[in-house]
Design brief:
The complex is a heterodimer.
Chain A: E1 8-9, H1 11-21, E2 37-38, E3 53-54, E4 57-64, E5 72-79, E6 82-88, H2 110-114, E7 124-126, E8 135-137, H3 140-158, E9 163-165, H4 178-186, E10 192-194, H5 200-210, E11 226-230, H6 234-237, H7 244-255, E12 258-263, H8 268-273, E13 276-279, H9 285-298, H10 304-310, E14 311-312, H11 330-335, H12 346-353, H13 357-369, E15 373-377, H14 387-400, E16 436-438, H15 442-448, H16 454-457, E17 471-475, H17 487-495, E18 502-507, E19 519-522, E20 531-534, E21 541-547, H18 560-570, H19 574-578, H20 583-595, H21 605-611, E22 613-617, H22 627-631, E23 645-646, H23 650-655, E24 690-696, H24 709-714, E25 718-721, H25 723-728, E26 736-741, E27 744-752, E28 760-765, E29 804-810
Parallel strand pairs in A: 9-17, 10-16, 11-12, 11-15, 12-13, 14-23, 17-18, 18-19, 24-28, 25-27
Antiparallel strand pairs in A: 1-3, 2-4, 4-5, 5-6, 7-8, 7-19, 20-21, 21-22, 24-29, 25-28, 26-27, 26-29
Helix pairs in contact in A: 3-18, 5-14, 9-12, 9-13, 9-14, 12-13
Chain B: E1 3-8, H1 17-25, E2 36-42, E3 45-47, E4 53-55, E5 58-64, H2 73-77, E6 83-85, E7 92-94, H3 104-108, E8 115-117, E9 122-124, H4 130-134, H5 140-144, E10 150-154, H6 155-162, E11 181-184, E12 198-199
Parallel strand pairs in B: 1-11
Antiparallel strand pairs in B: 1-10, 2-5, 2-12, 3-4, 6-7, 8-9
Classes of the chains: A alpha/beta, B alpha+beta.
Function (chain B): Electron transfer subunit of the terminal reductase during anaerobic growth on various sulfoxide and N-oxide compounds.
GO molecular function, one term (chain B): metal ion binding
Keywords (chain B): 4Fe-4S, Electron transport, Iron, Iron-sulfur, Metal-binding, Repeat, Transport
Amino acid sequence: MTITKEHSLSRRTFMKGSALAGLGAAAVGTAGLFGCAPATDSGAAGGGLADTAAVEEKVCWGHCSVNCETRCALRFHVVDDEVKWVETDNTGNDEYGDHQLRACQRGRTIRRWLNHPDRLNVPMKRVGKRGEGKFEEISWDEAIETIASEYRRILDAYGPESVYVQYASGVNAGNIGGFLNRLVNMNGGCLGRYGSYSSAQISQALPFLYGGRAANGNSDVANSKLVVLFGDNSCETKMSGAGPTYHYMQGLEKSGAKVIVVDPRYTDTAAVHADQWIAIRPGTDAALVDACAYVMITEDLVDHDFLSTYCIGYDDATMPEELRGTGASYVDYITGKGADATPKTPEWAAAITLVPAATIEALAREIATAKPCAIYQGKGPQRRGNGEQTARAICMLAVLTGNVGINGGNTGSDLDGYYMPAWFGVPAEDNPVEVSIASFTWTDAVDHGEQMTATRDGVRGADKLSVPIKMIWNYAGNCMTNQHGDINHAHEVLSDESKCEFIVLWDTFMTDSAKYADILLPDLMAVEQPNIIQSEYAGNMAYYIAGDAITSPKFERRTLYSVLTDVADKLGQKEAFTEGLDEMGWLRRIYEEQALPGDPGAPTFDEMMEQHIYKKQCPEGEHVAFKDFRDDPEANPLETPSGKIEIYSQALMDTVADWELAEGDLIHPLPVYCPEAEGYADPLAEKYPLQLTGFHFKGRTHSSYGCIEVLKAANPQELWMNPLDAEERSIVDGDTVRVTNDRGTVEIVVKVTPRIIPGTVAMGQGAWHDADMSGDKVDRGGCINTLTSHRPSPYAKANPQHTNLVEVARA
Amino acid sequence: MTYGFYFNGTRCTGCKTCVLACKDKNDLSESINFRNVYEYGGGTWTKGNDGCWTNDTFAYSVSVACNHCDMPVCMANCPQGAIEKDADTGAVRSDPEKCIGCGTCANACPYGAPKVDTEIMKSVKCDMCADKVAAGEKPVCVEACPLRALDFGDIDELRATYGDVAELAPLPAASETSPNLVITPPATAKPAGDTTGAVLNPREIS
């Protein structure tokens, strides 16, 4: 907000215009590329200028900071310290490659979030039983004192391993959330966590295959002949005009590539792009791949040169010596010469996937003969009870056909993009505690942490936890309940106040998670404080967006940093914590110290805060994963033990050799199909015959924006159900139904649609849980996590939130 | 000059950014949309002897607001003579001084463009962002579209650039009102009057 200026405008015209048309009628402008600039009175600003009253109108830049995995620019029209309406980036000539960072429908409603009557305004302490949602206003002094004293008490009594910083992604701005870890690490650290709720299975599985998880930028489909998307639904998850959805559209218009979408739902991505939709039973993508491999191997369509040069474990010739002749290779397994003596024929896969054998054969031949072919997966296939196997298996289509490391191809992983040379964030220093858990297993660590082991529960850095979680810091996250698996279980764990003894939580609303806070603090949104963000998944054009606070803080809301500064002061660490800097000072420091050195062409900090957007094209044209390896595998080996693509992973088997797996959990050295616990073939299907899968919904990003009324009206929370399943249950479109399993019940309106495979129902994730937790616990908010499990996946110990069995009946 | 909208059905993902950007600028409540996105689709499922499924499902999105028609039936039917067509821009506008909020226009329009705002008992609808257009800008929905599937301008130029298709299901035949609309149909588009599909998102339309 560097420039403000009195701006004359007819108050009468202004008010008249705003009655029907909002302030957009009064002040639309092309001004404001630099700073918080005065808007011009172009457009309907007419009226007698003699009859004027001073109206100060500013246009301020900021970004939509939720975790959809793209980042978008917003331009706020601010009058009298209130946001009146919001534009997106409409600067420049919008040529692709230097295009505008246009926000989606979610960002376009941010004014209703900012100005929402239900926003948290004051610090509060819990007065009822934990989880009841009863709070009482307290002073900031009392809040700070309570946090500091409880934190000290818990550190003294249980040590830093009992402290946990909850997984959270509601605020993505490099200069904001990191302060929490900075303070915690200054005080001995905390129990670490690994893996996210987004991508834990694929992130931890792909290193065994490739040495890392990497993919081409999806703008590279401009070079493809065929694009096959397994559960990649960017058009609903990352809808913005700066991210993958826009790059897919531009790239596909350029290449004219054929697109095949493999998904249980006929998604919006399928609707707009697919030449062919392969409707598949959830959780069985790997079986489809196995059968494609069978066709490619038996019809000799694989890329032998690629397999022999770049891979191990394909056939006996490249197996570890001691395993040769044992039937353990990929070819042996696929062709039925392995231990299970089952050829993975299209007919074998048809019975599992419900995809006709002829369709599978045609798919295999098409993938094998289109050069280059881009195989991408979304993060849906991996967010399952067999997600680690599925993620690796899908990549095999790229490996078998030699499409790795080239333009127009891909690794088979989820799409990536070009990034700015440096990622920047608040220096949090190292966590002195070396023990960590999988993010998803935190309820176990609260409930019985001292029983959690490395070999059974995935504890890392120690054989077992020494102490349960006793304190949770939760900044702008909803994983306490709403976004975690099995809300009713989490409720039981958290409402026992003898287990986790203290929870401090920041948010802008009384989310379902916030109801479990002991101290609940009213946060400022990212755009209400200095903010800067780096692009994520942005094809071949990376960018930064920067802005200053669009308005002054309202009510008693404060930044995370200012609160933690006061806590640090109480702990006698203020100087060390702040290093004498305010929010803008930190923003300047991290930008200048982290972003600038690797990028000589970048604007200075002052320039960045004036120009707000900085874009940078991928110097190579397109980001191609493992290109160096493909070009020269000797000089640029992968980070696998062999330096090659490890189709057979001895490293995986060595890692899990002494693990105790739960019944039904499977980890295979090969990237092949494994059934999942609570999958379609689970005996539980007799009681709950429908598979329930979640999906990332257009009307929210996870649970963010989930309470915005206009978004809810435009994107109602509904259960997708095929007409055949509906007819069987005497259900018609628009009915209210109950979705039930042993973990809970959701009441929801049903959308009967041919856009989903029979036998499967689907529910957008992130809707706000709404149940009487001291009563029937029926969730009338439509939150899928009332029905999901808290049992982790086999290897990553991660969230299998798309793997659920349910029954549906009219309410 | 007569202005019109262009809609590219090969690009529209149905994301509704146009709808929500319009609602922000015009400060509309949940119950009034000046622009709507229709999800039109259909298809049947067949189980084979092998237990596998085949289907012919299709779906596509259509974003539509007021088309400021050359033969506006809202204007023709308004009992108060409150609706007029601007000679300079072609914009079809309702005069709030004359409008009594009877809803005849809303019922007459085959695009569902005019609504009755029950709080003020007036007909309200898209004014093609007259303020922005007067300032040489495009309507907010067009500037908002993440996929660049919308455009706006001189209808003659739009037709010269994009052709003269102005109808597809679930929109009515263009002959009903002569809309100032140009459409690039999506690959799976069905003709106006099609009965093989249906609007699949009726609860999202308002």
